[in-house]
Amino acid sequence: MALRKHATNPSFGATPSPSHTPPPPPPPGGGGGGGKDRKMGSAEQLVIDICHPDLRENALLQLSKKRDIFHDLGPLLWSSPGTIAALLQEIISIFPSLSPPTLSPAASNRVCNALALLQCVASHPDTRIHFLIAHIPLYLYPFLNTKNKTRPFEYLRLTSLGVIGALVKVATFIVQKILLDDVGLRYICATADRFYAVTHVLGTMVELLVGQPSSRLLKHIIRCFLRLSDNQRSCMTMQENLPKALRDGTFNNCLHDDPITRRWLQQLLINVYGELRVSVCGGPHQ
Predict the structure, then answer these.
(1) Where is the composition biased (Polar residues) (predicted)?
(2) What pTM value is reported for the model?
(3) What is the pLDDT of residue 3?
(4) Are 81 and 37 in contact (CB under 8 A)?
């Protein structure tokens, strides 16, 4: 069964039949194009192997290791019949090991390799929306809710957060682009419902970053809050609901090497609380 490259069909179909014809070998003669064809040919064969239980573990490992050199791996995974279903099967298979906590290091490594491939799908612009429409992040929430502190569980939580983070970073950047436009800012601040919806999501992400800091994501969030403070009514409202972690120096270490974002945060606090109060209460280090 031939694989379709870059397909945008959101369906991930049924499991393919056991017999597959491997992709033809690249033409001789070398060259840059030939090297790229060989890489994609290797990726295609490994994706096919995911649907074969006996070959799956090695395919997950190899694709996870080489995902950075397969630039269109996300669309390839999504459009290959049965592949996403096989990845979800890997995730579901360890649910019984979550409670009571009996997850082994080998099982954790294997499912984390599957999660790394799902992150390729979540982060690619051609497949991100399909990933969300299919509600695939719901399969990851049981991993995020685990409390066990052993290494297999920590690795599982961290890898799951990477998948969610790939979506959150893009979503936050989109919100920032909307707010930086005057029309977008007026639209968000026109009603209390829109304003609270945006600030609630931003505040929730700030809380998550307290435990799992990301300076890049924090930068986008602070810029969003700063832009919201340009609206007078929104600025007054934020006196009551600006996240505490942005006010008490929680992220000083995270922003130590980012003077621009530190200045944004300082200006946000000045806009919301006034220069005198910020100078008296401290605020982030300059």
Answers:
(1) 8-18
(2) 0.60
(3) 46
(4) no
